[in-house]
Design goal:
Layout lengths: L2 H8 L16 H20 L5 H7 L10 H24 L1 H21 L3 H29 L2 H32 L3 H21 L14 H13 L1 H29 L9 H26 L1 H25 L6 H27 L6 H24 L7 H21 L32
Helix pairs in contact: 2-6, 2-7, 2-8, 4-5, 4-6, 4-14, 5-6, 5-8, 6-14, 7-11, 7-13, 9-14, 10-13, 10-14, 10-15, 11-12, 11-13, 12-13, 12-15, 14-15
Length: 445
């Protein structure tokens, strides 16, 4: 019997019911609202990629790789702030923390619209990242409050499907705004979407944190929660692998404009089409994953997807080398889409596996895991993106290296036994374990 199956049949249910009957949105609206809140991050990153040339022109930027910093500075603020929102939400609740974070995001969007210099714009992007982190972290915590195990993976897959489908439309939205007006209006669109998210969430989503799981907001409590995450083998291992795979995406996003738009292939206004085709593969994969995960389990799908990604990344690099770093555009789109497709079987499941043992500290756990994976992804993406040399070879090397290291980490985490056949897990201690009937299993160091 697999670990997941054993957990489902022998462990107490970890789903927490509210003290009162659930008065929030139904399943479809819950997924849509959660995905919309998470999707603001994708819009914030991807919608202004077509504006890089206009921004470089307005601020007299000569280095073609420098506009990439607008992506990575956002991710830096996004990553650093995540360590705050989880513990804060474990103390005051999910609603106040998310509403406060969204207000910071709104302020950053206004600053970006008014930026008088590139350096000021970088600062505004960092503020946006600090605010945007609330939606990403608290959406995961809210899902964990309501679901567990394969049900959580299913919900996360639907949320990730929307989250990953956004890049299909976001660059096109940015390109359309550019065609109609100034690049600053793109930040105005971000502002408008954040207002919609804030109003929808405030109107429809009740507090999901069970009163029994409120924790004091102090350094010792936060440090204790982080120590629990770091000491839980499955959580630490799968979070590391998730960060490395997200690094692949960040490397691609940072390099995409230089590769498709103004650099190698000179697509211009067709850049959003190429970007959307590749992003679409991720959306299709997450939809398939959501339909299959309850049948086959998180580990089988994610391990298979990761192994397939490693093989595809090697084949992709071989193709890139064969064409001296400038393969025919259709072949490049096909191989990148295949990599993103396979990658998308791993990421939502890795996130769910990392969170599953941490029910009693879901907010702090989501915060630390998000902090850790985002900073790791931003560092890896920056390293690969800034290596752009007029060819796609650095990107191909990045995919091979990051996916290979991720596979090695997963093999270590599972003690060499993949596809759900690893050693039995035992419960990770939590400060309130056993209260309200909540318990889960995790591998420990």
């Amino acid at each position: 019997m697999t670990r997941e199956a054993h957990t489902q049949t022998t462990q107490p249910a970890t789903k927490i019911l509210s003290p009162k009957p659930w008065t929030g949105p139904g399943f479809v609206e819950f997924v849509a609202l959660t995905a919309f809140v998470m999707g603001l991050t994708a819009v914030t990153i991807d919608s202004f990629l077509p504006a890089f040339p206009a921004i470089a022109h307005d601020f007299a930027i000569a280095d073609p790789n420098r506009p990439q910093l607008l992506v990575y500075v956002y991710m830096l603020g996004f990553g650093l702030a995540q360590i705050v929102y989880g513990p804060l939400s474990d103390s005051v609740g999910r609603r106040p923390a998310l509403i406060g974070g969204t207000a910071i995001y709104l302020a950053g969007s206004v600053l970006a619209m008014m930026a008088p210099s590139f350096e000021f714009l970088l600062l505004a992007r960092a503020v946006q990242g600090i605010g945007g982190a609330a939606g990403r972290i608290l959406a995961v915590a809210i899902v964990r409050d309501r679901f567990e195990g394969r049900d959580m993976a299913r919900v996360m897959s639907f949320c990730m499907m929307v989250f990953l489908m956004v890049p299909i439309l976001a660059p096109a939205m940015g390109g359309l705004i550019l065609a109609l007006g100034h690049w600053r209006l793109i930040f105005g669109a971000m502002l408008a979407l954040a207002v919609v998210a804030l109003a929808w969430f405030g109107w429809r989503m009740p507090e999901t944190l069970h009163p029994a799981y409120r924790r004091p907001l102090d350094i010792r409590a936060v440090a204790g929660g982080i120590a629990t995450v770091a000491a839980t083998r499955a959580s630490l291992g799968y979070a590391t692998a998730l960060g490395l795979l997200t690094g692949c995406i960040m490397a691609y996003v940072g390099s995409a404009q230089a590769i498709f738009d103004t650099g190698i292939y000179q697509l211009g206004r067709l850049f959003p089409v190429a970007f959307g085709l590749i992003a679409g593969a991720m959306g299709v994969a997450t939809l398939i994953n959501a339909r299959l995960v309850r049948r086959f389990g998180m580990r089988r799908l994610s391990h298979g997807g990761l192994i397939g990604l490693c093989l595809m990344a090697v084949a992709q690099l071989g193709l890139m080398l064969a064409f001296a770093g400038r393969p025919p555009l259709p072949l490049l789109i096909l191989t990148l889409a295949a990599c993103q497709f396979l990658l998308s079987f791993a990421m939502p499941n890795f996130n769910a596996i990392a969170m599953e043992p941490l029910a009693a500290i879901a907010g702090t756990a989501s915060s630390f895991i998000g902090f850790y994976t985002t900073l790791l992804a931003a560092f890896c993406g920056l390293l690969v993106g800034q290596s752009f040399d007029g060819t796609v070879i650095p990107l191909g090397i990045g995919y091979c290296a990051l996916s290979g290291i991720a596979l090695a980490v997963v093999v270590w985490t599972e003690r060499g036994r993949l596809f759900g056949s690893g050693a039995m897990a035992r419960p990770a201690p939590g400060p309130v374990e056993g209260r309200a009937g909540r318990s889960s299993s995790a591998e420990r160091h």
